[in-house]
Amino acid sequence: AEEAAREGVFWRVAEADQSQLERQVTLMGELDDALTSGAIEVHYQPKLLLSENRIVSVEALVRWRHPERGFIGPDAFIPLAEQTDRIGPLTVHVLETAMHDQVRWRLLGHDVTIAVNVSARLVASADFEQDVRAILRKDVGDPSRIIFEVTESATLTDPEAAVAALHRYRALGIGISMDDYGTGQSTLSYLRQLPLAELKIDRSFVQFSHRNRNDGLMVRSTIDLAHSLGLKVVAEGIEEEACLAFLRELGCDYAQGYHISRPLRAEALVQLLSARSNLDQVA
Ligand code: C2E
Ligand code: MG
Ligand code: MG
Ligand code: MG
């Protein structure tokens, strides 16, 4: 009886795996359609420049408006897209959308640097690099106002190829940012080889840094280290005013998080930018 029960459990688990697999296959088919139908949206989360209290850059974050399932966040489909070779087309879509939005915003008087997340597998992909070069040749947007956010894992899968590719992107004018810094395992001597402009301290260190002494010390020393290497620092995941005040005190360059703004649709971002620049004129 015990064995039968165990088999029963096993069968149910296998069935669950199977249906999960089927769901993933369906989802990937739908993703192909979504990419051409406009269901893949790009939202933008501001990075606040602390020295000027202004929003001069944003991070592009992808969202999928699924007709039946509603809104699907990137964590639910980016890993699948990576495993099934759809991450290239998806990232190209995000980059193209971002560059078009950038041009529209400039016409409205807002110069905004846009950061795009580039997955591990893409950093050293020759196909992706070709696509990026083709987009830049179209002369839409300004590569010096584009940033690629990469993670340490991105650069560590094939360190030499990643370093070389990042230098080529840098030569095209694109800025390179190290995302989720502090969660990976790269050595300082390796980091030094990357053509970084910016380091983003991971939310897990930032979130409670104003309350937790160790987190605070870690954030402080990371900011000092980055500055001594000539890098700008972004703190991500700021959810409270006290945390923002703490990071200001530490001399952090940019702040990002729900306390400043959630990721916004392009139209809402423009409204925020306009409202803030009106404030500047009044002040
Ligand atoms: P990430 O690049 O580290 O982006 C930050 C994530 O934290 C975003 O989640 C953002 O909405 C969220 N976040 C921002 N501020 C706060 C805060 O104050 N508190 C909390 N709890 N969360 C905050 P999102 O949009 O769900 O994206 C998750 C991850 O998916 C991103 O992490 C990034 O790695 C990936 N991703 C998003 N868009 C793209 C894309 O276009 N391409 C690729 N390859 N990856 C993407
Ligand atoms: Mg990011
Ligand atoms: Mg991040
Ligand atoms: Mg993070």
TrEMBL record:
Residues 24-277 form the EAL domain. It comes from the Bacteria. This is EAL domain-containing protein.
